[in-house]
Amino acid sequence: MQADLARPVDPTRGPLFGYALFKASADRFFWYARYHHIVMDAFGMWLIARRTANVYTQLAMGRTTQDGSFGSLAVLLEEDAAYRASEQFALDGQFWIDYLGGRPEPVRVDGCPGSSQSRTFLRNTSALPHGSMDRLRSIAERTGASLSQVISAAAAIFLHRVTGANDLIFGLPVAARNSVSRCTPGMVSNVLPLRASVRPNLPVSEVLGQISWQMRRVLRHQRYQIADLRRNGGIGNGQRLFGFNVNIMRFDYSFSFAGNNAVAHNLSLGPVEDLSIAIYDRSDGAPLRIDFDANPALYTAADLADHQQRFLNLLAAVGDPDVAIGRLELLSADERRLLLEDWNATARAVLPAT
Question: Is residue 279 within 8 Å of residue 309, measured between CB atoms?
Answer without folding.
Answer: no
